[in-house]
Design goal:
The chain is mainly α. The chain contains 13 helices and three strands.
């Protein structure tokens, strides 16, 4: 009766609840409750352990299936699966929180990595009378995006700002994520300004400081570019993992090896 005739009043009550338990209802009614909340712009996580919860789980933004005595229908239909209901807390407060932070950091660094080298190319073209000559050969561009900076940037998925025990003890930390500050327009604008500033300083600084060595401008600016990216990753990391340090050192070692082996790409000439 409430869902059919008083849906607006019902969803108004549900919005003021921190959690909603839908019991002794049909699968369609359970899914209808989730649909009403989502229609109001609410992000809904639905957890269930039986086959009659499948419709509700699939309707929610995050469907959590629990492996219970009623079978595995709910766990197979959900986006994620847990063995017990007590696993929902760590799933959201710990893993969900870290997943959002890591994804945000990874996205921002990928934007930063591409915008820095684009700014350097733009400065190079402007200084040399809008020349269409590429600053770096194709091998160096591919190496910058994969070999030399990929491991440190992707190692950010191992970063964690707080231990799991503290996050579970203070669930209000999760509420900060609902404000969307990690990937807001302000954060994107800040990283865009940082990228343009760093790219301009690296390229223009290399041209001014090493004016008498313009023949080596490629290796000078490229080395500064690689070091800047590695240092930015190191400054962003909150808690170091041994794989992060290994990624930084391995990337630096691979670049040093490239300088010695592929000398023709950096303007070196044998005497």
């Amino acid at each position: 009766m409430c869902l059919r005739s008083y849906s607006e009043e019902t969803v108004g009550v549900l919005e003021r609840c921190s959690g909603v338990v839908v019991a002794r209802c049909s699968p369609t009614q359970k899914a209808r409750v989730v649909r009403l909340l989502r229609a109001r712009g609410r992000a809904v996580a639905a957890a269930g352990d039986g086959g009659n919860d499948v419709a509700m789980i699939q309707e929610a933004d995050l469907g959590i299936g629990i492996e219970g005595v009623e079978g595995r229908a709910a766990s197979l239909a959900g986006d994620v699966s847990v063995r017990q209901f007590c696993g929902v807390g760590p799933l959201l407060l710990v893993h969900g929180r870290r997943a959002l932070q890591r994804s945000a950091a990874l996205c921002l660094f990928i934007v930063h990595r591409g915008l820095v080298v684009s700014t350097m190319q733009a400065v190079f073209s402007v200084v040399f009378y809008f020349s269409s000559v590429s600053l770096y050969p194709g091998f160096l561009m591919v190496g910058y995006g994969t070999i030399y900076t990929m491991l440190p940037v992707f190692s950010l998925v191992l970063d964690k700002d707080l231990p799991s025990a503290i996050v579970l003890r203070h669930p209000q930390l999760y509420k900060q994520l609902t404000k969307g500050r990690q990937l807001s327009y302000k954060m994107f604008f800040i990283w865009t300004v940082i990228s343009i500033y760093q790219g301009g300083v690296i390229m223009y600084g290399a041209l001014v400081l090493f004016e008498d060595q313009l023949i080596h401008i490629v290796e000078i600016s490229y080395t500064a570019l690689i070091l800047t990216e590695l240092i930015m990753v190191a400054l962003t990391i909150a808690t170091w993992h041994w794989l992060m340090a290994a990624a930084e050192l391995l990337s630096l070692l691979m670049y040093a090896t490239t300088l010695l082996v592929f000398t023709s790409y950096f303007g070196f000439r044998e005497a």
